[in-house]
Design goal:
Layout: E1 19-22, E2 27-30, E3 33-34, H1 35-41, H2 44-53, H3 59-71, H4 77-85, H5 92-103, H6 115-139, H7 154-163, H8 169-181, H9 189-199, H10 204-215, H11 223-234, H12 240-251, H13 268-284, H14 288-301, H15 304-308, H16 315-325, H17 333-354
Antiparallel strand pairs: 1-2, 2-3
Helix pairs in contact: 1-8, 2-17, 3-6, 5-6, 5-10, 6-7, 6-17, 7-8, 8-13, 8-16, 8-17, 9-10, 9-17, 10-17, 11-16, 13-16
Length: 379
């Protein structure tokens, strides 16, 4: 009989200084700072520096860090050529996973696992993932990728490369807040995956490629894509009540983006994104998707089933509305999650290297023992 919960529930596997998830009370901290303070005040670059260095940067340090990110955003032309050769219907996360793996082949420091080299490689990945994501969004539509600019920060550069136009402040702020909110979240599945690969003395590109594969699943990063597709299926605020009665209550349909493995109180990231989703709806005049989401959440929160189980809107629920409103297609949304979570993955990879030991849990074998061998001709 196993003494561990399914899915390692409740099992502590390591110490970390990166983030604390207080699921019972609905709090999230990065290196001790509340997610509310960071979302209100920090750039994504500033948040990443915090996670990688366990402190906030000075103005000079932030400027140097941001300038280095801008300088590293270009990707090898050969990788863009390979992306152009892929089927246009390939899932964006599969393309990103492939492209990140390829990046390792172009980095002369790929197999150098010294602390300094890992910091440099982490910064290259941080800088290049928005370029890869924006490039695929255009390539699959038959458009040419747009090169990054040296005068734009990461969030602004992503929107510029995506749309080939000057991004608006509303778009920049929405993307920046999203990236800050998703940067780290304890030992989630993809972060744990990155640490498992690192524990084998694997390189950072292998660890991040594996983490992207983990994030792709709909029970993890893919939930925002699933949530937006659900809202699109409903289609109209006037149809929400019918959907809830027929699909949710009548057929047991799971509301994507409602409920969380850890949070038994409102997800603080979900509350922040709710505010931004509402503001975007009002500023753009495109309120239908927000109204669909808000009505469905209201129905769920008034229902005994959801109340008893403490099921609240999580980060994926309103983030899908925010991203869709600024022009991110549903199947591209998880790539933005990866663009953000590279900050946390790299932080944990570097932390794992600080005291690295192979992660090798035991399994509880439940099969037969000493089964008699049957010759092939007798089977």
């Amino acid at each position: 009989m196993s003494d561990a919960g399914k899915g390692l529930a409740g099992v502590v596997v390591a110490d970390t200084t990166k983030s604390k998830v207080d699921g019972e009370n609905g709090h999230l901290y990065y290196v001790g700072y509340t997610i509310e303070d960071l979302a209100a005040n920090a750039t994504f670059e500033e948040t990443t520096f915090l996670l990688w260095n366990n402190r906030l940067p000075s103005q000079a340090e932030l400027s140097e860090f941001s300038d280095t990110v801008k300088a590293e955003m270009e990707v090898p032309a050969a990788i863009i050529d390979v992306m152009k050769s892929l089927p246009s219907n390939a899932h964006p996360m599969g393309v990103l996973r492939t492209a990140v793996s390829m990046l390792g082949n172009y980095d002369p420091e790929a197999d150098d696992n010294s602390m300094d080299a890992n910091h440099r490689k982490a910064l290259r990945l941080l800088a290049k993932m928005p370029t890869l994501t924006a490039a695929w969004a255009r390539i699959r539509k038959g458009q040419e990728p747009v090169a990054p600019r040296k005068d734009l920060g990461l969030a602004a550069n992503f929107m510029y490369m995506l749309n080939d136009r000057e991004p608006t402040e509303t778009e920049i702020q929405a993307i920046n807040v999203y990236l800050v909110l998703l940067a780290d979240h304890g030992f989630n599945a993809s972060t744990f995956t990155s640490r498992v690969v690192t524990s084998t003395d694997g390189d950072i590109y292998s660890a991040v490629a594996a983490a992207i594969g983990s994030l792709k699943g709909p029970k993890h990063g893919g939930a925002n894509e699933a949530a937006m597709k659900m809202f699109m299926e409903i289609g109209d605020p006037a149809k929400v009540d019918e959907f809830f009665t027929k699909r949710v209550k009548g057929e047991g349909y799971k509301i994507m983006g409602i409920g969380h493995r850890v949070y038994k109180a409102p997800d603080p990231r979900g509350g922040i994104l709710h505010v931004h989703a509402k503001a975007l709806a009002e500023s753009t005049g495109n309120a239908a998707w927000y109204e669909v989401a808000k009505r469905l959440e209201d129905l769920a929160r008034a229902d005994e089933y959801f109340i008893e189980r403490k099921l609240y809107a999580n980060v994926d629920y309103y983030s899908s509305i925010v991203l869709y409103t600024v022009g991110i297609e549903p199947d591209m949304m998880t790539c933005l999650f990866a663009m953000s979570r590279i900050a946390g993955w790299a932080a944990h990879i570097i932390e794992q290297w600080g005291d690295n030991r192979l992660i090798r849990p035991k399994a509880n074998y439940t099969g037969e023992i000493n089964v008699p061998w049957v010759p092939l001709e007798e089977r």
